[in-house]
Design a protein that fits this description.
Layout lengths: L4 E5 L5 H14 L3 H5 L5 H9 L3 E8 L2 E12 L6 E10 L8 H16 L1 E6 L6 H10 L28
Parallel strand pairs: 4-5
Antiparallel strand pairs: 1-2, 2-3, 3-4
Amino acid sequence: MKGNVLTRVLGSEDVAALRQMLDLFAEAFDDPESYLRHPPDDAYLAALLARDTFVAVASLCEGRVVGGLAGYVLPKFEQARSEFYIYDLAVAEACRRQGVATAMIETLQHVAAERGIYVIFVQADYGDDPAVALYTKLGTREDVMHFDIAPRRRAASTPDGGTKRG
């Protein structure tokens, strides 16, 4: 990797950098279908970057995104506090094992502290040893199960929002 790496939180004016992050995620996760097939327009991305419930952190080297972290602030209902979920984190292959991911998480830790966020959490897949090692170095491991449940439209609703059953 040439040059210095600058890590910073993206703002609404950083749509081009967020698009570079999408390219990076598509390559790093080998998933162009999810990240590149139906890209949102610039107005959508600018509005997303302006929200206080979304945070994107980018690591840039010579003006190019070499690392990206994207996640969501989750306001809680059981207590007056929020948690942060790291949804995606990737580093360009040529820049791995050089502290880029750690720098992005440290930047996020400062943002979280400034915003009064209680905890940051992230998932890692079994077999993704580099990710597991990184997150183990930075946090406490919890073994949990993850389930994807598909949305489903209601057939008919009652006035109170319930579902009629026959």
